[in-house]
Structure formats: C-alpha cells, structure tokens
Amino acid sequence: MGICKLGYVGLEVTDVDAWVDLFGRTLGVGVTPAKIGTQEVALLELDEFKYRLALHPSAQDRPREVGWIVDSPRELDRLTQRLTDAGFAVGEGSADEVELRGATRLRWFTDPVGYRVELAVGEAKVRTGPARPADARPGVTGLGHIVLAGPELAELRELYESVLEFRLTDYRAPGLYFLRCNATHHSIALARADTPSIHHLEIEHGSIDDVGRAHDRALANGVPISISLGRHMNDKAISFYVRNPSGFHLEIGCGGIEVGEGWIPHDFGTSDVWGHRHADANPFASPAS
C-alpha cells in the first residue's frame, strides 16, 4: 500500500498575518496557534485533523516540508529501505516534530530539488469539524494536491514513480506530469521550471456551491484572483486560483475525478474545458522541453 495521501504542507512565510487574513476572507478558515520547540506556528483548520497547512514565521518565503501519510509502520520501513537503496539519506523526525504533526512515527529525506519530504504514520483528529462562518459552511474539506516545479524533473519523476510508487495518471508533453497515490486523479503534479518552486496548493471543497461562495467572498473582499473560474480538462475539477502572500497560487476547487486500476496514462492535450484565464503569464502554457 505505502503512501496513501498528501497529509500536510509546512511553509516558512514572511507575513503570517496576511496568510491568516487571506484564508479568513476567502475560505472562512480558522487558525490554531501552536509551538514547535520555542517557535510559534499557525495551523490552518481545513478539516477535523490537527492541520493540513502550517505557517512558520520566517525572514523568507519558502517551503518547509511536504508530508505524506503512510498507512502502517511496516510500510514506512519498506519505503525507508527503498529510499536508502536509491541513495537518499533518511532521518528520524524529532519528538517535537512528531507531536506537532499528530503522527506516531515520522521520517524525512531531501528530494532532488532540495525540499524536505516527510513520511508520517498516523493522523490526530482534534475536532469533530472546524468552525466556519455561516456563508462558508460546509466549505473546505481538506488539502487536495500540490504542484512542484524545478529543473530536476527527471529526478523528481524517478523519486515519486520508481521509489515512492506513485502512478502516472496523465501528462502534457513535454514537461508536466500528474501522479496519484490513491484513487484521486492526482495528489502531486511535477513540472519543469528554471528554479524550484511550488506552483500551487489545492484546497479541496465538497461542492461547486462551496467553490462559488468562496469565489463570491474573494471578489467581495478584494482577494487577488490569479486564475479565473474554470474546469480542467484532465481531472474535470472546477476551480479558481488566488495569489497568496508568498507569491504562489492557491487553487480553490472541487469535483476532481477518481480513476481505477485499468486507467491508461495519456497526453490530455488542452489544459482546460473552459475558463481558467491567467492574470499573469502561464508558465505551463507551453512547458519547456
């Protein structure tokens, strides 16, 4: 079985208050303050689990960790061996890190673009459901997927497909690949870019009405919409994107398809069925070869 889903993302951010304000004005999401050691961290309440997105105050904006949930200690050991055999140095998470994640076991390694990737066993439920304003209920249901870009695209594909056993769902030639670790169309997409970056994180919603209400709140509150409302061609999700204070996109979406064991990877060609007009240049309009 191995990795079963995207668990959480940690970010170092220069303006925590701006992030909290963005989530509040757009999604009605609350925040839990916490500490790791002596450092304060803001945990965004996306669902009933402890957190999906952690904001660490910092002098620069950058990813801190990407966390994947592994379904058992035995599978954690198996994946650790696969990583070690592939030349990755795997470390143990500290007691403070394990506690903050709400995990029972935690290991980590550095991926080919220099990001810390964590493998965690266990998730702590800390609420029956997050509090939401009346116009944001039920609203957010969790963290959907992440899109990573960097110059080491071949190495990233080797890591996620050959070592961590993700499966290729589809792609756009010559440099954008969508991978899954469960029935959801994709939990991560990998793209070629000149410098490592997160292109976007997707915040999952339960219905088109939830996405529409979030869109209304974004417009009413002056939130910068970086990509307009639209439907993707490959996973059929309906979404819009906002630019966050760290400079990359948050996708607000719902309705992505699930795929079965008989799914055949293919080039899906056109990026969107309709919509998704970019306010700025789209780096994936014609992926670099």
From TrEMBL:
Keywords per UniProt: Aromatic hydrocarbons catabolism, Dioxygenase, Iron, Metal-binding, Oxidoreductase
Iron found in the keyword field: yes
Domain VOC, residue spans: 5-122, 142-255
Family the entry assigns: Belongs to the extradiol ring-cleavage dioxygenase family.
Annotated protein name in UniProt: 3,4-dihydroxy-9,10-secoandrosta-1,3, 5(10)-triene-9,17-dione 4,5-dioxygenase
Pfam families: Glyoxalase (PF00903)
Molecular function terms, GO-annotated: dioxygenase activity; ferrous iron binding
Cofactor section: Fe(2+)
